[in-house]
Amino acid sequence: MWRRANSRGTRARSAFVIVMFVLITLSLGGCATRMAKSGLENGTLRPCPESPNCVSSLSSDAVHGIEALTYKGDEAEGMRLLKEAMEQLPRTSIVTEEGRYLHVEFTTRIMRFVDDVEFLIAPGGGRIDVRSALRVGYGDMGANRKRVEEIRAVLAELSQQQ
Questions:
Q1: Are the CB atoms for 20 and 81 separated by under 8 Å?
Q2: Pairing of strands 69-70, 54-56
């Protein structure tokens, strides 16, 4: 008889833990879909916030700064290569394409957080400024830097195929 009561208590605790996990995951997922500030500001990519959850080729400090992407060709070739690279990367969705600007959402595999990556092709081509930022959270454990380097590698591979 004691075993039966104990078993019910264990099941109730397990159910409670599962319900709490689902509620927390859903609430975090809802935050992850809120749009962070993105888009061009005075004709260029927005600066990174002070928090260490963003990298940008327009930042010069060690926390946020990263090299711009490069390629051979004009602006149209740069946009073509970027879009082809995004097709090769998992869990990506192009949100905005306007002239030399491209905004892409990346969704993380496990928690389904959405991060924003923006590109601005330099006039005349050859250089692509990039900004990659988390929508939620303070730090990113290097995720944005790793993402930009992955994009750089895919672009280099595509450029070599030309």
A1: no
A2: unpaired
Q: Do 115 and 134 meet the contact criterion of CB atoms below 8 Å apart?
A: yes
Closest Cα partner for 150 from 125, 117, 124, 120? 117
Cα 2–chain centre separation: 52
Burial of 65 (0-12, 13-18, 19+ CB in 10 A): middle
Q: Report whether 130 contacts 148 (CB < 8 A).
A: yes
**Straight-line distance from the first to the last Cα atom of the chain, in angstroms, rounded to the nearest whole number:** 75
Query: Using CB atoms within 10 A of its CB, is residue 99 exposed (0-12), middle (13-18) or buried (19+)?
Result: exposed
Length of the chain measured in residues: 162
Residue 63 in tokens: 């926390």
d(CA 65, CA 55): 6
Task: Give per-residue pLDDT as tens, 55-79.
Answer: 999 999 999 999 999 999 999 999 9
pLDDT at 14: 72
